[in-house]
């Protein structure tokens, strides 16, 4: 399993997931840069992702949804703020409605994904920061830790 550590910190309002992969940084970058590859690993098992739009560049957007086993679609949007290919990118991630309008009643996270060479492969660090400890707790209660971990753990099969 690639995920090696999960740190939740209500004081700093962050959840950080660390994962190690046995492939080069450039290969892990491709997973996030190619919407068809991202669809295969972004949603946890049983909640496949569909990427409707993706622009992995500063000012770019990603519109996506995950489909539950019951057929319910859960919409989200990324607003990309920084990109340093193939090392890191940052974005805000918010829950949305079917027209990809951010739901103001749901938490929005500021995220940074970083990929560095480590032991002949790649160490990925996924950090999400929320506006309040309550917002972080809300997504933790919704299962973000398990969902993100099982999604990230699917990357090994894709890059094998």
TrEMBL record:
CDD domains according to UniProt: SRPBCC_CalC_Aha1-like (cd07814)
Top-rank taxon: Bacteria
Domain Activator of Hsp90 ATPase homologue 1/2-like C-terminal: 23-159
InterPro entries in the cross-refs: ASHA1/2-like_C, START-like_dom_sf
Family: Belongs to the AHA1 family.
Name the record gives this protein: Uncharacterized conserved protein YndB, AHSA1/START domain
Organism expressing this protein natively: Auraticoccus monumenti
């Amino acid at each position: 399993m690639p995920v090696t550590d999960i740190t939740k910190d209500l004081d700093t309002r962050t959840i950080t997931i660390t994962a190690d992969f046995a492939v080069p940084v450039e290969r892990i970058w491709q997973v996030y840069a190619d919407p068809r590859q991202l669809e295969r690993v972004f949603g946890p098992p049983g909640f496949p992702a569909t990427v409707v739009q993706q622009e992995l560049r500063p000012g770019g957007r990603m519109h996506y949804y995950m489909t539950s086993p019951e057929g319910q679609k859960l919409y989200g949007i990324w607003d990309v703020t920084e990109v340093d290919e193939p090392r890191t990118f940052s974005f805000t991630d918010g829950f949305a409605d079917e027209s990809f309008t951010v739901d103001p009643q749901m938490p929005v996270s500021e995220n940074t994904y970083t990929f560095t060479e480590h032991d002949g492969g790649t160490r990925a660090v996924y950090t999400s920061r929320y506006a309040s400890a309550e917002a972080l707790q809300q997504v933790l209660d919704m299962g973000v830790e398990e969902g993100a971990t099982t999604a990230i753990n699917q990357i090994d099969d894709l890059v094998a």
